[in-house]
Specification:
The protein is an alpha/beta fold and 196 residues long. Helix content is 38%, strand content 24%. Strand 5, helix 5 and strand 6 (142-145) form a beta-alpha-beta unit. It binds guanosine-5'-triphosphate and magnesium ion (MG). Guanosine-5'-triphosphate (GTP) binds at residues 13-19, 30-31, 33, 35-36, 61-63, 118-119, 121-122, 147-149. One of its GO terms (molecular function) is GTPase activity.
């Protein structure tokens, strides 16, 4: 059976979620692209060491009117590029809302998140590198500056996310294995002792 990871693109409208996905999956960029309506996905198979991995990237709509469709698609998501645009201050300010929303839908321990500053090819920046780095530190996540247009750091960002997902999966498997192997008498010892 082929192994699979599920990635979910999140962030405000027009920040370039679909464009990052298109760059990663098809290595294409479009100056004119339709806003995403609802949810759709694309996937590709990559070689990971000796095994093959299907990377499924789900794309969501940033427009507010679609926001409440998405939660069922959040389920089983293992990684999220949380995207804002460096030329759109509001999209940066809205990251907090998206993070809160995500945390309401998924188990924090099971999901890997990367903060993505997109459209870095543009010169009229409204959000600086240090502001992005500080926000990433606040959430304890990695920070990438990307451009879907030039392709800068796009592959690297997805690769880092996939590595984080796979490491987390190993950690969680080891943890559940450890708990399964934990001797019953030791489990009982953790119960509070009655004094009388
Ligand atoms: N210069 C530049 N333009 C970009 C970049 N990424 C996306 N764009 C442009 O920004 C616009 C919006 O891109 P989309 O990929 O549709 O944004 P989205 O986040 O998917 O938007 P919704 O589907 O509405 O949520 C399009 O005109 C893209 O061509 C980038 O890295 N650099
Ligand atoms: Mg889109």
């Amino acid at each position: 059976m082929q192994d699979k990871v599920k990635i979910l693109m999140l962030g405000e409208r027009s920040v370039g979620k679909s464009s990052l996905l298109n760059r990663y999956i098809d290595d294409k960029f479009y100056d004119t692209i339709q806003a995403t309506l609802g949810v759709e996905y694309k996937q590709k198979v990559i070689t990971n060491g000796e095994s093959q991995l299907t990377v499924q990237v789900w794309d969501t709509a940033g427009q507010e009117r679609f926001r409440y469709i998405a939660p069922i698609y959040y389920r089983n998501a293992q990684g999220v590029p949380m995207v804002y645009s460096v030329v759109d201050r509001d999209s940066f300010n809205q990251v907090q809302t998206w993070m809160d929303y995500l945390k309401d839908q998924v188990d924090n321990q099971l999901i890997s998140i990367i903060l993505v500053a997109n459209k870095c090819d543009l010169e009229n920046r409204h959000v600086s590198t240090s502001e992005g780095q500080e926000l990433a530190q606040l959430y304890s996540v990695r920070y990438f500056e990307c451009s879907a247009k030039t392709g800068a750091q796009v592959k690297e960002m997805y690769s880092e996310l996939i590595q984080q997902i796979l490491s987390k999966r190993i950690q969680n498997n080891e943890e559940s294995q450890r708990l399964r192997n934990f001797p019953q008498d030791q489990v009982d010892n953790t119960q509070p002792q009655k004094c009388c």
